[in-house]
Amino acid sequence: MYAVGVLVRSPVQEARSSFYSLGGLKQLQAVMSPSSGTALRVKTKIINLITDLIELTATGDDTSLETWDDSVMSQFAAAALDMLGQAEELDGKEKALMAMRALLVRRGGAGRAALEEEGGEPVLREALTELDLLVD
């Protein structure tokens, strides 16, 4: 994960373009699936990378995506929701919530639509219930 993170976070636009065009987000999502057996630590690194990519793209610092494609936004939303649902530790849940916040703040209605299309409401309700139980 470290090597992938260094490449796609680098200032070299071609690295991110290649990552997106080769379906890098879908690959990250596959690694995060429950059946993959991936360690939570690695999943947390993946959601951090996704959050960074959202921020880069949303602030306009990343011109590797000529347009913000709905399918890419849906992949970001799905990855964050997967992490929120799968994370067993609060740190993982926090990172997933940060990624969703970035989608909502930086992409507004389109970010909200992507989260809704990926089934965000029930996942968020379940997470809030879990967090409420921890507080009580």
Strand and helix layout:
Layout: H1 2-9, H2 13-21, H3 24-32, H4 40-58, H5 70-86, H6 90-117, H7 120-135
Helix pairs in contact: 1-4, 3-4, 3-5, 4-5, 4-6, 5-6, 5-7
Shape: globular
Strand count, sense and barrel status of the largest sheet are: none
Give the SSE order as H and E letters.
Answer: HHHHHHH
How many extended strands?
A: 0
Q: Give helix % range.
A: over 70%
What structural category arises from helix and sheet content?
A: mainly alpha
| Strand content bin | under 5%
The DSSP helix count reads 7
Q: Provide the residue-averaged pLDDT.
A: 79
- The span between the termini is 36 Å
Low-pLDDT residue spans: none
Q: What is the CA-atom radius of gyration, in angstroms?
A: 14 Å
Structure overview:
By secondary structure, this protein is mainly alpha-helical. The protein is built from seven helices and no strands. Helix 1 packs parallel to helix 4 and helix 4 (40-58) crosses helix 6. The termini are far apart. The mean pLDDT is 79.
Task: List the keywords.
136 residues; mainly alpha; globular
What's the gist of this structure?
By secondary structure, the protein is an all-alpha fold.
